[in-house]
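Work Package 4 report. The design task specified in the project plan requires that, given a folded chain encoded as structure tokens, an amino acid be chosen for each position. We show below one input record used in the internal validation round.
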């Protein structure tokens, strides 16, 4: 564990589980607020560590180690802002040490476990992708379908299967990755994808921004906002989520929106920053307040559109390289911010607003084109 910067005596201490690219906004907000931040990530080079007062190189699934860290750090709150894997651990730590927390342990388990979430949504009749738990190749759901290990997070053991010939190897890979020796086969719902960013307060669900997924990013507002938000609310209620942020992915099929996944945390696509730029709601600040057990004025959840459209565009993944063109990108009209970092599937992101979604998308794309990652090898070839 490494001390980066001291804070005044008496500063509230927050344990943040995850320091990757998706947590940058929350960690920056915690630093700006003057909290003493203990950040945890298994990657020593995690970009969010630069905002931490202390860093711990620990896997997020090592719950005993996380509990020891919380106890030794005398933390006032714990949060998992960008990882489903750590949502359950954060709730468990909070319950053990009597810390305030937005989620009950039961709601945390339902939201973070793919299988348990699927089972609970089915019990509640919430529209979702069809699914089946199997121990061997099973084509009942037809093709295309998604094959995954139900007790793993991320891409490990996940395959999109489009033909019977691909099914056997995909199931074998999922079973190999699974801790419990089970495989989940899910229908691949054909249709556009929407994401609902919301915050619950006193069991009231507040949809803040609904975006449509586009190639390389997201654009606000969604053309399907009302119906998508309604189904996301059904899902949050079914999972017992009464407080804190949620991020729901839905596919809009021929019969309407169906839940792909609801996460009881901030979205990992800079959703909080888009929310602030689009509707002037500071979701990072609200999430910090919830993690520390502070009273939240419902007025802070009232959306007030600042623009006609907003677009979050990701930069392509990169290896260590010199970055060029950032200043030019930031000068593009409507650009709210631009971040460059090393993520597993992206090299950064740019957020732009405009008079309408099309203008916001054009501005974000134009700004992204200015950014170049120039490696030594590339220069030698040139």
């Amino acid at each position: 564990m490494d001390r980066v910067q001291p804070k005044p005596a008496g500063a509230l201490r927050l344990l943040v589980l995850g320091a990757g690219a998706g947590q940058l906004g929350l960690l920056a907000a915690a630093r700006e607020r003057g909290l003493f931040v203990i950040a945890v990530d298994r990657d020593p080079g995690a970009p969010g560590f630069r905002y931490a007062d202390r860093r711990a190189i620990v896997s997020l699934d090592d719950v005993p180690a996380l509990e020891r860290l919380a106890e030794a750090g005398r933390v006032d709150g714990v949060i998992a802002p960008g990882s489903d894997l750590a949502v359950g651990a954060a709730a468990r730590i909070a319950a053990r040490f009597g810390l305030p927390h937005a989620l009950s342990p039961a709601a945390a388990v339902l939201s973070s476990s793919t299988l348990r979430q699927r089972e609970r949504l089915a019990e509640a009749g919430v529209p979702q992708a069809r699914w089946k738990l199997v121990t061997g190749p099973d084509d009942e759901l037809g093709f295309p379908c998604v094959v995954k290990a139900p007790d793993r997070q991320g891409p490990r053991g996940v395959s999109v299967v489009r033909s019977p010939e691909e099914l056997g190897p995909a199931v074998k890979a999922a079973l190999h990755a699974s801790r419990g020796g089970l495989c989940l086969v899910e229908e691949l719902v054909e249709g556009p994808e929407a994401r609902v960013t919301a915050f619950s307060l006193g069991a009231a669900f507040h949809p803040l921004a609904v975006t449509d997924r586009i190639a390389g990013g997201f654009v606000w507002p969604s053309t399907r906002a009302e119906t998508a938000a309604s189904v996301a609310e059904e899902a949050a209620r079914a999972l017992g989520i009464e407080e804190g942020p949620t991020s729901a992915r839905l596919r809009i099929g021929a019969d309407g929106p169906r839940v792909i996944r609801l996460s009881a945390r901030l979205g990992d696509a800079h959703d909080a920053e888009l929310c602030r730029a689009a509707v002037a709601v500071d979701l990072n600040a609200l999430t910090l307040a919830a993690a520390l057990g502070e009273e939240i004025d419902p007025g802070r959840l009232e959306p007030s559109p600042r623009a006609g459209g907003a677009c979050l565009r990701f930069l392509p993944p990169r290896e260590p390289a010199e970055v060029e063109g950032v200043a030019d990108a930031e000068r593009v009209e409507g650009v709210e911010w631009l971040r460059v970092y090393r993520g597993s599937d992206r090299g950064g992101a740019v957020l732009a607003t405009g008079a309408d979604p099309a203008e916001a998308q054009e501005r974000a794309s134009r700004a992204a084109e200015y950014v170049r990652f120039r490696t030594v090898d590339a220069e030698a070839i040139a």
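The mean pLDDT is 93. Validation will be extended to a larger panel in the next phase.
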